[in-house]
Amino acid sequence: MAKSNRLLQLMQVLRVLPSPVTANRLATEMSVSLRTIYRDIDSLRAAGARIEGERGYGYQLTEDYALPPQTLNRIEIEALALGLGEIKCIGDKTLADAAASVLAKIAATLPGEREQQLFHAISKIYRPQARITLELDIKAIRHACWIEQALRLEYADGNGDLSSRIVYPLSLMYTEHTLTILAWCCKRENFRMFRADRIKSVESTDISFRPRRVTMLNTYLKILAESPQ
Fold first, then answer.
1. What backbone torsions phi and psi does residue 50 show, to the nearest 5 degrees?
2. Model pTM?
3. 174 DSSP β-pair partners
């Protein structure tokens, strides 16, 4: 890994992990030696990052040179904390980890008082259980949406009957208790919704539908908005 990329990754680890974080923990997270961690900490400090602590005691990032200061007012901070808290309760671990990363990045750009308001916001989400239980690894579906590539799905309908479909994945829609994939079904030649809990397998294809995803999604959303409830 190039040193510049390693330093950016180390900054993110310092943002996310509870402070103070020991050099041993940093070395484990980064898969590098202690000596490399000590050198990289010195490099970050020389570049302007305020990192308190020393060898044997742990480190804490107190001012992040890589991110500009944010100007958020109190209610914007409450909205941010609430929104990220809701994401953590969906049941999608990848999104939950991303929400924690976003929170750490934004907190690193806030003045001390605002940072404390973010971490101790009065608006909270309480969900003893995740909204959605996902047995399917949806990374492949999310990636296919991003790169606009068709997927082959093995899908069970409401009666449990299996069928194979080539679909253009357009969006992941999180409803109250279900994750639904909005897609164009090549078999039906129409827009369709596929419930994630009924997808038995996902296979990538070499079929690209770029650059049509945004246009197709907007069309589908318009159809849904105009459909009788």
1. -90, 105
2. 0.69
3. 179
